[in-house]
Amino acid sequence: MTDDTRSTGADEVLAVDIVGLTKEFGGLKAVVDITIKVPKQRVHGILGPNGAGKTTVLNMISGFIRADSGSISVFGEDVTRTRPFDIARKGVARTYQNIRLFPGLTVLETVIAGAYMQRTSTIAGAILFSPAERRERKAARERAAELLDMVGCRAPHGSLAETLSYGDQRRVEIARALATDPRILLLDEPTAGMNDAESEQIGQLLVQLKDLGHTLILIEHNMRLVEEFCETVSVMNSGALLAEGAPTWCLEQDDVKEAYFGKRSDAARIATLRRVRRDLGGS
Fold this sequence. Notes:
This protein is of the alpha/beta class and 283 residues long. 40% of the residues lie in helices and 22% in strands.
C-alpha cells in the first residue's frame, strides 16, 4: 500500500535502495521481502509496533546482520555483503536502540572517538607528539565540541558520558555518529526517554542535518515527531511492509491502525484521540 503522491521520482538520487530484503532467524522470518527506497537528503521514518522487524532492517543496512536474500545499495553501490567497517567508510553511521557508550570515556572523548576514520597522523607522530599530531588533536577537540553544541548537549565535556541523563546520553551518541562525517545517519529511537521539548529539539536537529546534506533514516515511536519532521515513512508489521508514503497518510490507513492498536474498533477510537491531541498541540 503506497501513497502515490509521495512516490520516489525517477530523477531522484537514492541514498539507500533496498530491494526484496528477507531475513530469517531459526525459522522465524523477521523481515519478509522488504523494498524501501530513500532519496538523498531526506528524513525517512521506519515505523511499526514492537517486533515488526525495524531494527533488523537497520542492522542489515549497517552490515551487522547479513540478509538471506535481496539487496542493499548505498548511493548506487551494492553493500549487501559488505562488512560493517567498510559500510561505515562509505558514509553510513548509526545509533542504537540500547545506548552504547564507551565506559570510562568523558563526553568529549566519546565524540572524538567517533572521528577515528578522519585521523591522518602516524603511530610515530602520536608517540613523538609531533606538531601535526598536536594540530590534529586540537581540531578533533574543537569539532567534537561543535557537534555536542549542535545536538544540544549542555553537560560538562569532562563528565563521564555514562553518568549523564538518558536524554543527554542519546545526544552524545548522535554526536559521536556525526563525528564520522556520514552521508547517511541511521537513528534507532533517537527520542526515547526524552520529554516533548527535548524531542522537539531532536526534530529540529533532523531538519538541520538534512539541510547540511545528510540523509536520515530513523526508527521512532513518537508519532508527533514523525508527522512533523519525517517527509516519508515505511510502516512494517510482522516483518512485512504495510504502507509507505507521507506520514499522516500512512497512519490513517486501517491496516496500520490495526497493527498498532489491535482491533479496528479500538484503533478507530485511539486514532481519533491522536488527531485531537495533535490539533491541541499535545503528544
